[in-house]
Design brief:
46% strand, 441 residues, mainly beta, seven-stranded antiparallel sheet
């Protein structure tokens, strides 16, 4: 299978892939369903309208295909269960667009963001499509910055953000906006990142957005345990140089690392860059089982990469903290200490404070466990460990258990945590952080 310029790629629930439209001189009506590994030959279907630079978005178990050159004012639906392409007379867009971003929600709706109108003007409007009611309506809110080719990212905490893209005249847009899918309003989060061409935004586990490509620096916004307008900002300096990228040339692996076209795997937490044999120019799509589809243009070939597969036995390897300051963030006014770029499976934490503080462990579902760190006691709920004032306390998390240790005294506490966890601290008024040790187990 190959993808023409302007083709849309979307993973299917069965582990397959859908390749939608594209152009070869003119927009095409071809729809290719690539079956899961071992599932046999691909199916070739036909769209109602020829489309290039359209969106194809999975929502409610179906794929909504909207806009694009050739069919800029229409939308249609592919049903993976029946294998049919559907379009009703009501499937019309309120304003024609191509080169837009899109995101699907669990309620089956799809949001189209920005793009270009048929005259090439950059759009600031947002449209909500609802296949259940066969309706399409312009949202109440508009983008703070009109942009084409934006990335619309739904983070693992469910919140939706618009990042990147290009403004009128082609300049890179370095701002981030929060899309409130309840009200349809958009709010500016930040516009302070370096707008260098060739860096693309990706969503990382732990409610984070990272800009990767064209250099050694990765900018990170962490929204974990923060409001949508007040993320923690950090920069990570990588150990190696990355090439300039375009959207689609970076994919997040099952362990949270990022695979980059041109031959790299980036661990943002460690700041490491490892070589891989991924040809430049390949479009990378993470399929449902963790396989990465590397899709080339006609004549260049495509492949499947099993870099990491999701499994209940997964446990990230031990890693080192990066050498720079980007892994630790302070907010003295709020008494907040956060490790914005790191996530841990089994971990040992050795904090020292000169007053009372709370440690929070938050898993990928949003479940949070609070560890109270007081002068003569450390506790998790009703599970307590008494110790002399000023004793060095160690907290260990392993699967669904937290171990509290002070000298020879040990208490084991059962907790409800699943997968990797984020760490952050709340310092009571007047408390200062003296030292912090964090070790992967």
């Amino acid at each position: 299978v190959a993808a023409l310029d302007g083709a849309a790629l979307v993973p299917l629930p069965d582990g397959g892939l859908l390749v939608v439209g594209g152009e070869d001189g003119d927009p095409r009506r071809r729809l290719v369903r690539v079956k899961p590994p071992g599932g046999g030959l691909a199916d070739v279907l036909t769209l109602f309208d020829a489309r290039a630079y359209a969106s194809a978005t999975l929502a409610g178990g179906r794929v909504v295909i909207a806009g694009g050159l050739g069919g800029a004012d229409t939308w249609e639906v592919f049903d993976p269960v029946t294998g049919e392409v559907l379009r009703e007379p009501e499937y019309a867009l309120p304003d024609a667009r191509s080169h837009h971003g899109a995101i699907g929600l669990e309620d089956g709706s799809v949001w189209l963001v920005g793009g270009l109108d048929p005259d090439g003007e950059v759009l600031d409007t947002v449209v909500r499509l609802d296949p259940a009611t066969e309706s399409a309506a312009v949202s109440a809110g508009t983008l703070t910055s009109a942009r084409s080719e934006p990335e619309v990212l739904r983070l693992d905490d469910g919140r939706v953000f618009v990042a990147g893209g290009r403004r009128t005249g082609g300049a890179v847009d370095n701002s981030v906006e929060w899309l409130d899918t309840d009200s349809g309003e958009l709010r500016l989060v930040t516009e302070s990142f370096d707008a260098r061409p060739g860096a693309v935004p990706v969503g990382l586990p732990g409610a984070r957005i990272a800009w990767i490509g064209n250099g050694r620096t990765v900018e990170v916004l962490s929204f974990a345990d923060r409001g949508p307008l007040s993320p923690v900002k950090a920069e990570v300096e990588l150990a190696g140089e990355l090439p300039a990228l375009v959207p689609g040339e970076a994919a997040v692996l099952a362990d949270g690392d990022v695979l980059v076209a041109g031959g790299f795997v980036v661990d943002v937490g460690r700041g490491t860059v490892e070589r891989r044999d991924v040809p430049a120019g390949r479009r990378l799509v993470a399929l449902t089982d963790g396989v990465i589809a590397e899709i080339g243009r006609p004549g260049s070939g495509s492949s499947l990469r099993r870099e990491h597969l999701r499994s209940e036995f997964d446990n990230p390897p031990a890693t080192l903290l990066p050498d720079d300051d980007g892994w630790l963030a302070f907010d003295p006014a709020a008494g907040f200490v956060h490790l914005p770029t790191l996530r841990f499976a089994d971990v040992r934490i050795a904090p020292r404070f000169d007053g009372p503080a709370d440690l929070y462990l938050r898993d990928e579902r949003g479940e949070t466990v609070r560890v109270v760190l007081d002068a003569e006691r450390t506790e998790v709920g009703l599970c307590q460990l008494g110790h002399p004032a000023g004793a060095d306390v160690v907290v260990e998390r392993t699967a669904d258990r937290v171990l509290l240790r002070a000298g020879d005294a040990v208490t084991r506490c059962d907790v409800s945590l699943d997968g990797r966890v984020a760490l952050f601290f709340r310092l009571l008024e007047g408390t200062r952080l003296v030292s912090l040790g964090v070790e992967r187990l």
